[in-house]
Amino acid sequence: MFRAPVWLVFIVGLFMASAFFIPVDPFPMMQTWALKWDVIISAFALAVGIDSLVMHHIRRVQRRQNVLYSGTLLVGFWVTIAWGAFAWWRYGGPFATRSTFLWLFRYIVVPMDATMFSLLAFFIASAAYRAFRARNFSSSLLLLSAGIVMLGRVPFGDWAAAPIFVAFALLLAFYFLRVFRQYEGWGRSTRMVVGILFLAVGIILLWPIGMGGQLFPAFRFVVHSVPHLASWIMEVPQMAARRGIDLGISLGSLAFALRVLVGIERGYMR
Amino acid sequence: MNIWELIGIWFAALLTFAVFSFLYRDNPVYKWAEHLFVGVSAALGVYAALEQSIVPSVREALAFPGVFKFITWIAVFLGALILFKLEALATYLPNLTFLSRYPIAFVTGMGVGLTLVNVVNGYLFPQTQATFLPLFNIQGADWLTLLNNWIIVLGVVFALMYFFFSAQYKGKLGAVLQVGITFLMVAFGAMFGYTVMARLSLLIGRIYFLLHDWLHII
Amino acid sequence: MRFLYLLTTIDRRIIYGLVFLATTLPFLFKKSPSVQITPEVEKVYRFIDKLPPGSRIVLSADYGPSSMPEIQPMLYGICKHAFSRGHKVYLLTHWNYQGLIAGQDGIMSAVRDFNEEIKKGKHPERTDTLLEGTDYVSWGFRPGGMAVMLLLNSDIRMAFSRDVRGQLLDSLPAMQGFRNLRDLGTVENPRGILIGLEAGFTGDVWVIYGQAQGRYPMALGSTAVVTPSYYTYLEAGQIIGILGGLKGAAEYEQLAGFKGQASIGMLSQSIVHILVVVLIFLGNLGFFLARRK
Amino acid sequence: MTGILAFCILTQPPELAPAQNLMVGVRSDGYWVLWEPSMTDSLILRYEVFRDGELIGRAEIGEYEFLDKGASGVHTYMVRAVGGPRYIKEIEVWGMKLPLLAWQEGGYADTRPVSVEPLAGLAVSHRWQGFGFSGYRLEWGFRPQGFVEVIRDGETIITLPPGSQSFTDASAVVGKKGYMIRDATTGQEIIPNIRARWEAVHFGGLTLSWNLPGQEGFTLMRSAEAREQDMRTVDHMPPEPVAQVTGQESGFVDRMASREMIALLRSRSPMNIYRYYLVSGDGSKVYFSEPVRPQAFNFMKLPVLIMDILFACVFFGFLFMARRGRPMFIRKIAGLEELDNAVGRSTEMGRPIVYVPGIGTIADIESIASLTILKHVAKKAAEYETPVIMPNFDPMVTAAAKEVIKEAYTEAGRPDLYNEDNVFYVSSQQFAFAGAVSGLIVRERPGATFLIGYYAAESLVIAEAGYSVGAIQVAGTASVLQTPFFLAACDYVLIGEEEYAASAYLSHNALQMATLKAEDVFKATFVSAIIVLSLLVSLGISFIFLS
What we know:
The complex is a heterotetramer of chains A (270), B (218), C (293) and D (547). Chain C is an alpha/beta fold and 293 residues long. Helices cover 52% and strands 12% of the residues of chain C.
């Protein structure tokens, strides 16, 4: 029973791949028409998705499980369907510019969707606060590059960057210089060196800020370098690592396409 | 600013506070708003599908001359087969649901064929070729380009080797994972920093709506 | 020491309150700071500025309501800039009704404001107001994503035979002589540009499938979440520039010389970003001081 | 006013000049006769076209072409320019006298007849080279203000727009590196950085060879017919001269056609069908060739085909080896012990485990990998007698998860512990699912949470809930955009493809092992290619797989 659709995938897949290599007559036209078929068929696929959602909630209402919520969903669904049909008849199309049907989109979907995602702004702040602790080398790198990029991309961020990094360097220096005695041998010396290093960085960064409070040229140089440092991090190291990861992922999608073409992978057929 | 818009803005503000209440705790008002949102957006999806794609496709199918019209009708018929997956039909005609596999197979075949070729032509080769960067003897280029080229080449190489699972990175080779994880951490940190601004823009958009459209303060 | 311990475990609801205040209060000051222009935004602005008048700007509004605050100011800014340079604007979308309505609202507000400016005489070279069909066209949505992009490379009318209002494309003056996206020329001698306003994966599909075959000039405006992944395309030369997040929109507004929604939001962005970094520092302060070994 | 008008017209010399350089182009729908206006065009009333002596059509004023529909075979064409002296005629319109310009059909002037016949024996070959040289790439560091002139051996070959910093000279010859870059405004001259560009597959160009009687020279001309993918002809380019050639020639390369052909093969822009013409010296004979179509196979994309075939061979090779049970080495992912001691610590605390498979459907690779890791976690939980609670986003994944957990419990020897309603479907809406799962985590207060699978924006909502109840969190997702949030909120994260490696390591499933090994082979090739070719570029030879 699985045979025919798997062969259809193989034939259509092979044709679309070979049409890429053959610029002469029949193939480009057939490829254009195959793409047109694809547009028509995926239009029907939308209907199936919506049907499974509505049927699921109808069953939950019939089984008396959270009737209020599933009821609200169904009422919302059928009211929108009715309003849409009226708008189509009245304005020649539900999404015509003057149609009142857009009221539903503008005043229910837009606020809900946008506010739902904006919750993440709160979660990001609390997650950053609780989890960005410089436990080891890699997590402190994560923290440092996040901090620089965050401060580098906002207008006043660069002014605030210098004092924050000074405080951070001095904190780390204080920690390492207090703790290095509890380690022996190699661990002890590295911690001492790192502590002194952070102390030096803190004082050097402090010097332009502390110079009599007025905007000393050195301070302005430090301030203006933060945005450039932020865009440099985005354009070079981030781009390189991202390219490495994406090359891996596209090899993965190539392998997945091969498995589906040959019919080993049939998840999509459920 | 007619009465409908006024009601709309007040209802949108109500929904916005309903969602913000989720910050405190999961509460019935939030659940009610959530389900209303799901129902309305599903119905809007129905009309989007009907008005923007199914109706124009069928209208175009009739408009094309002769043999092309016939070809387009095959596509519409093949597309209609998917409807056998609908639960209403599936309950009455369970043994016909297998028919819906053919259109899905056609669309999957299209996706697979295009992926097999275009991932290589559009991503693998161009991105790899863009990483063949000169590492020394660059006349006239300043030291920053040289440094950037080194970092890009090393970054891509170590990121790829970090996801290399056929070699046992023991002892000395462990350093490869260390350098790889360093590049990844810098990249993820940058992505995190970049995303804070994105999520904040959404919150700013909502606050702008509350202050500007609802309360007319700004 | 108790105070240090308190520093490391601030209750998350207090943090939510702080973020809410830090976002709301700056709005009341009504002062939008000047943003530093990054090269990738400037490239897009210069490219559109240098295009010969009457070239074609194709906008692909692939975003939903949740990304409207970031991308709508970009659409608004690009449309106003294109109209002031006398270019024609074309709008399509791959995100069914969401992108369609968001894009439609954006272009309508840009047209309305531009027409008011014309009436106020700000654009001496234009006497008549903008008309749908002659100055801007909205093609609407067709499902299929990749399929539609490849169709647009060979013939627009195969993918979109009618625009959103149901008018035949051939009947619109703006569509005369516009057969497919290759009429946008190439990066060397451009006659237009395709700008993908992306909030998801469609941007990569545009570059890998659309631009790789059509070779037309292309730029991407996107939410800040997705922007990092486009730097690889920028460096490889597949796109000419990126508008990243609300900051990208604010930079474009500043280049185009008007104070839009993006610029107003930048002050709150600064305050909250600084708040987040200070919170990270406080978390580490308590963490390190309390840590013995 | 009429006086002045009359004076300048009537003084024109009466005799007429014939149309100039008559040319016949061949199109799919017939012969296309083209000519340029005669010297005395102002006196000409119309042009008449004659085929083999008899009149077939005329061209109105301002038209200098005529399509002889459906014509084929050998014919002779001639164009007659009909006209005569002009005079002013007074005409009566509503009682007003208006001057009107009129012609006397005084005479006509004929062009020399042009005979058109197919060019027998014209051989066109597409020259392809593996590892072909495709020119020098010049790069210079400084940013010029004005226009930039690229000078090769003294003469300027191109002027680039201001601000350009690189140029590829496609018409270069191997070895001749006398390049100089001059900034037009400042006059500054520097030697650019020169790199030879070699291509894996290089299109050598269209080479023509023909053999015509008679000794005198010919003009080689070319016309093109651009045809869109749906076979409708888009536009015709009239024949334009390419070069002066002799009657016998073999191996003549037409450079312009090669460059356009490359553009076509690289990006399948409208398909140009070329046609060559040999026009005799005095313009009396025109030989036309058959249309030169692009080859059936687009060799420019050969590297893509080779890459696909290689990948398929490597992948299926590993698959058959894995199916026949050959042991394959996959390194132990550091995170795997984390999975086990997370379950262990959760048992010490006597609290359940929550496993969230993300919002992927059954067709996503990440959901399938997550189910494999679920089996390992469930088996470990069965040994420690800790309940596993699993909220789901997709009904299909729920059904599959139920089976996976049942198998894991029976393999661990504790089928009695399996509790049917610990694995349940929650919702298919992203944020409804996130809200419900975080509510569940806050209520159940699990000792350990596993967030493995495809995640989107809701990843942080769930991870934040897990963090607030102090659970040990192990996350794993290949969606790179969510990894930073998991890194911030979870104790251990499987980054990107480590999720697939973990599921392959745990399950030894042949298909997943083969995919991983095939990817590793190509990752190694890309790494070595980048290292070797970057060094080569530094030495001045840049190699491109796909131009």
